[in-house]
């Protein structure tokens, strides 16, 4: 076996990494370069000969640095992106060094056992049924896909149809019902599964985006086709929670499967103060959430849970003569996820939970929500600023009123100025036909000082005489 020089390139990577992380509090949060500049720095002819690994790492870091968005910063408030806490980040480095293919127990015993244990801990943290199965996927998209694949299997099985063997041609038609303010990953999952986005019935919601149980009951009564109901906990704009307990009662009475898309909102169940928002969530049939959001582990990390493990395995599992399938007590991850070869993403999850504990996870979630409330309170105290949602979680929708009446244009201009300012990073959205700034507080390192500094920058950028 060759003995390469590991020390030099790893030392370079460590030094560059530490410099980047320690500079986060002071560097602009957004990228400070353009696509042409990045292309000029990174592009070039295909290398013809080997290069020194340390020099490769140094050159890559130098060229990419200006094009990095500081999503690890305590003042990054876009897209519900969490940071990575120190234990999870360090475990992710080990994950890369160990380079385990976490598909089979035989191929990665430690990775398999870590996912088994971390999956059990996650189920306990989130208040889900102890018998539920768990899968470690890339994020909310594949978690929704996997859960809906299990739902598709089970709902068609009840109709006497084996979808894994026979496909969808000639199968009983399924219905998917979801709130009008659902996340687009639900529609994409329906497309990927061959159900088609047109099969989704949009159920009416209230002014915060919560599904109305009576509207769901009316929609279910309109057809006798087997149905899958997708509820949402933590709307991506308002943070609002569907009344999952009532939805489960209505849906199960009609024989439907209930899936809960809880990409970040499901973490409220880990908080004694916020757990009431998820009341009844344990009565659902499947759940999706992210680790790279509120658990603050590195990308990519998502979780799918299913109250019907047989359906989960039937939808995802595979058997082949060349594989070494796990014996009794040996968990093969490929029976629970769409991927075959994949990263052992359970190690950072395990480390994060060990480092935080139950109380640390609760404190992280509650602190972020408190800071979101501080954002809303401080911004709403100023003329020309309007908070569009009830701040029940970590999401704040902000609208900036203009003297000339072009509130949408002014709001979008403020968002762009804030990004150029570099103090913090927020993104825009459209809520109920109106442009808004969306602030999401999801990072373990954010503190009150970050909020105060960001509020000052936002208000400065909202002034009529701010730079256009």
Automatic annotation (TrEMBL):
The keyword Lyase appears for this protein: yes
Pfam families for the chain: Pyridoxal_deC
Annotated keywords: Decarboxylase, Lyase, Pyridoxal phosphate
InterPro entries xref list: Aromatic_deC, PyrdxlP-dep_de-COase, PyrdxlP-dep_Trfase, PyrdxlP-dep_Trfase_major, PyrdxlP-dep_Trfase_small
Cofactor(s) demanded: pyridoxal 5'-phosphate
Presence of the UniProt keyword Lyase in the record: yes
Family affiliation: Belongs to the group II decarboxylase family.
Protein name (database record): Glutamate/tyrosine decarboxylase-like PLP-dependent enzyme
Species this chain originates from: Streptosporangium lutulentum
